Amino acid sequence: MNSRLEDIVSKIVASDKIIIHRHANPDPDALGSQSGLAEAIKFTYPEKQVKIVGSPVGDLTWINQPEEVANDFYQNALVIVTDTADRPRVSDQRFDQGNYLIKIDHHPNDDAYGDMYYVDTDASSCSEIIVDLINASDQRLKLNQEAARVLYAGIIGDTGRFLYSATSEHTFNVAAQLVAYGFDHTAVSQSLNEVTLNQAKLQSIVYDRLHFDQNGAAHIVISRELLAELGVKDDQVNSVVSTPGHLREVLLWTLFVEKEDGTYRVHFRSKGPVINEIAKAHHGGGHPLASGANATDVAEINQIVAQMEQAGHDFQLQTK
C-alpha cells in the first residue's frame, strides 16, 4: 500500500544524509525527478548532505550530472530511488546499502521494493509526483528556480511536450507552477528538441529502413556497425525512439538497438495497443504505451516482432 506523501516528507526532514538514485540509461524524467528532489532538499535544508548518483547521462548533462559517493557514505543514510520500477534497473546497485529505502515512481508497481514507497501510475511523470510531494509538505520542502527547471524538463520529456495521453489538467497546473519560478522554459524545450547532425542522420535511416505491416506494427534493428558508421553513441540513440510515431501509418513500434555484447536493448512504443505485457515477457516492463526490455538474439527479436504484430492486429479488430 502506498505511503502518504506527508510521511515521506517527514522521513526526509529527519535524515541528515540523503542519497538519490534513478534508473540506468536515464531519460529527462529520471534526471529531473532525481535532481529536482535533491535541489529542493538542499535549498530548504542547506545543512543536510544530499548526493545524486548513477551512470553517465550522455547528452543530458544540462539537467544534471551524477556525483562520486564513497561506500561508507551509505552508512545511516536515507536512500530514495525515483522513476525506477524494478530493482535491476536502478543505476548504481548500492541503493540498498543505506539504513532506509524509499521508492517514488509512476510505473506499474510490479516490484514493490523499499521500506516505504509511493507509486502513482496516473501521473504523467515522476517529476510531477515530486512536485506533488513538495506541495504536500506544508513548506517543509520548498522549490527554487533550479528545482523548477529540472522538474519541468522531466515533465515535458515524459509527456512528449504534453502530447501523450498521461498528460492531465493537473499536469498543466504543475507545469504552470514551475514556469512561474522564472527559468528559461523555452531553452529547456529547445534543449530537448535539439539533435546532433549524426543523430539526425540516424533518424533519416530509421524512416528509410523501418519495416511495418498492414496493421501499423513497425520495427527496425539498429546495429553496432551502423552506430559506429554514423558516430552515434549508445546514450544518444534515445533521440530516435519516438521517430516512427511521427508516421500516420504506424500504430505501435519497436526499436532493437544492438549492445556491445551482441544482445539488444528493446524500446517499445504505442499509440493505442497495450505493449508492456510483451515487454515483461522479455525481462522488461514499463508503461502500457511505453516500455523497455532486452532481446538475446535474432530469434528473440523475431518473436517480439510477431507479438507486436499480433497486438496491432487485435487492436484493429477491437476498434472496428
TrEMBL record:
Domain DDH: start-end pairs: 17-155
Signal peptide: none
Location of the DHHA1 domain: 229-310
InterPro entries listed in its UniProt record: DDH_dom, DHH_sf, DHHA1_dom, Oligoribo/pAp-PDE_c-di-AMP_PDE
Gene3D superfamilies hit by this protein: 3.10.310.30, inorganic pyrophosphatase (n-terminal core)
Family matches, as Pfam families: DHH (PF01368), DHHA1 (PF02272)
Superkingdom to which the source organism belongs: Bacteria
SUPFAM superfamilies (alphabetical): DHH phosphoesterases (SSF64182)
Single annotated GO MF: nucleic acid binding
Name the record gives this protein: Phosphoesterase, DHH family protein
Species classification: Bacteria, Bacillati, Bacillota, Bacilli, Lactobacillales
